[in-house]
Amino acid sequence: MKINFTASLGRSAAVLFIISTVSLSQDFYSARSAFSPAQYDTNIVFESPNKNFSSASHPSSLLNAWGLDILISNNGFGLGGFYRHQYTNELFGTVTFAVSDAKDDNEVEYVTYYGQTIVPGKINRFLLIPLDVGVQYRLFADDILDNFRPYINGAIGPTMVFASPYDREFFNSLGYGQAHYTIGGYIGFGAFFGSDKESLSGINIRYYFVPFKKGIDSMENGYGGVDTKKDFGGFFITLNFGSLF
Known about the structure:
Helix content: 10-25%
Number of strands: 12
Number of helices: 3
Largest sheet: 8 strands, antiparallel, barrel
Strand content: over 45%
Shape: elongated
């Protein structure tokens, strides 16, 4: 009787061991499948708590620009403005407007004892006012850093030359002046400097073509006649200051 009880106890223990082993095996495989790489991506993704960070760090392209031009030439100084639109990484369209002095090549200035400047024989003062539409092409866009952006440019458009009598004070003479119109333009080269993507600063050297076939009275020639000025073009150094939007 004692022997049978022991055998029965042994069989019961064996059954419990087998059941426990099967149960542990099932739990192990369930845990393994739960952490299987096939079901879960192991990459760690960092996300900024600021939901606007992504859009703020990647602003939209600034394709337009406008600004101020300061013109310097043998004729004096001038002021103007420009508008620019970007079509490709190299090609831009431009609109420029300026007002500057224009002088006759034969003018000789004298300073009087009282500090006044006079030009003997001068008949008219001239203001050159071009409005030009053109193109600007950036050079070496893939080879040079953005803090130096060279380009070539050219433009064409209507040009007004305003002639006012020299024998009157400057502002008073404007009421007695006459406007003359022609077609002109310019070609040039220059560069923008700096790494700021929202501003423009640079220099442009241009040669303006402003022909007047009929000519405009300019100087007394000393022989009782009048010389006319037929070409109002020339070299201009233009300083550019603007911003992009």
